[in-house]
Amino acid sequence: MSTLKKWYSTEDACKYLGLGRTNLMMLKDNDLTVGVHYVFVTGRKRGTLGWDVAAIQQWQIQASKEIMNRPKKIVEQVETYQKMGV
Fold first, then answer.
1. Which pLDDT value is given to residue 3?
2. pLDDT at residue 2 above 60?
3. Are 33 and 26 in contact (CB under 8 A)?
4. How far is CA 50 from CA 21, 28, 69, 84, in A?
5. Average pLDDT score over the chain
6. By residue range, what is the domain housing residue 65?
7. From CA 4, how far away is CA 16, in angstroms rounded?
8. Domain total for the chain?
9. What tens digit of pLDDT does each residue of 52-64 get?
10. Residue 5: phi, psi to the nearest 5?
11. What is the CA radius of gyration of the chain?
12. pLDDT tens sequence across 12-50
């Protein structure tokens, strides 16, 4: 019987995600969702954080795609003044 580890320590999460602690904490404050990407494993706000590395990796993939598609979306919104049918 194998045990699946869901919540990783901050140190392990940083190692597996390729992030520094400061960047991970900034993501927590601005982009990640409590209960999805991280939890307070003690059930208290000042308690130890547990990180779902797989969920954060999915967020990284999605955020990277959005960054790469952003210029394309901006170009699509630009109006042209070319006559119709030309």
1. 62
2. no
3. no
4. 13, 11, 31, 57
5. 88
6. 10-77
7. 16
8. 1
9. 999 999 999 999 9
10. -90, 120
11. 19
12. 999 999 999 999 999 999 999 999 999 999 999 889 999
Q: How far apart are CA 40 and CA 7, in angstroms?
A: 10
**Does residue 14 lie within any of the structural domains?**
yes
- State the CATH number of the domain containing residue 47: 1.10.1660
Smallest CA-to-CA distance from 30 within 71, 52, 63 is with 63
H or E element that contains 77: helix 53-77
Tokens matching residue 29: 């404050």
Burial class from Cβ neighbours inside 10 Å (0-12, 13-18, 19+) for residue 25 reads: middle
The angle at the Cα of 9, spanning 8 to 14, to the nearest 5 degrees, equals 90
